[in-house]
Predict the structure.
Amino acid sequence: MTLRVGIGAMPFTPSDMEFARQAEQLGVDSIWVPEYWAADALTPVAYLAACTTRVRLATGIAQLGARTPAMLAMSALSLQALSGGRFVLGLGVSGPQVMEGWHGVRFDRPVRRTRETIEIVRSITAGERLEYHGEIYELPLPGGEGRSLRSAMSPAHVPIYVASLGPANLRLTGELADGWVGNSFFPETADVFTDPIRAGAEAAGRNLSDVELTVSVSLEFTDDVEEAGRRHAEGYAFTFGAMGSATTNFYNNAFERQGYGDDVRAVQRLWLAGDQDGARRRVPTAIGIGTNLIGTNDMIRERLRLYRDAGIGTLRINPANPTGDDLDRRINDLGRLLELVREVNGEPRP
């Protein structure tokens, strides 16, 4: 497996835009734009399409339910045309707190919603006349004046990547998606994610290699691994305590399947009880170190080998800024990482 490097980006300041430009010049493969309850993911991709020439441009991720499947397909076709074929549609169901609290959309049957959205988007982008009879979407609506329409845009292939954490959605990713938008990932326990993706792929007559596996990691070069790992670990307290309710937290479930169940439950209890400082202290340092690229050149080179051997195709990098917005540091660290990736990719494989 050859490793590629992408970056996460929110290009809303001159510094962040310059980072994206220089990252492309350094040789990154892709730029991923997030979406949660701040800016949308699609508008920045259009802006980046005008400011770059080579890199793939991906939503990481557009929230399912925030737009109709047809609107997603319209946006995808627009961005594919504007970018010269460089757009990747990353999709994810988000969670009930965001979908019901922010978008006012019921969070129900997320796996089924993902399947039907992918099927509708693919039908539209392939230039087919849209007629769909699903459990969630019925197009055209029955009993009304709607007509079965075909997009007036030219057909275009739009790669679809799915952000999934639970086993059912991971199997769906293997069955239908072009790629996986992964997080909460330790390369040492990669099979927690890759086994269901592989099972879904094989059930559909595909191979795991047909699905590009991408994972998000923060990057920090340092000799003080314990201090940096501790700092990154504490950032997970919000994920375990606030990125979900007491009963629904997909991140916690993913960490539990990787052996950290007691830890994430303890962090969540502290957070929900109002003890946020205690919750931050309770996150194991091993989580901060194991889910990121932290340490010296030699340490990070060894971690890169683990990701490569786990079948990861793209690392979505977030260069750490422990001392503030330091563009030079981010660029230097990214260049340093790309050199290590080239070294690892050039090593003979057994």
Observations:
- Residues 250-272 form the longest helix (23 residues).
- The mean pLDDT is 96.
- The domain at 4-220+297-342 is CATH 3.20.20.30 (TIM Barrel).
- The longest strand covers residues 212-221.
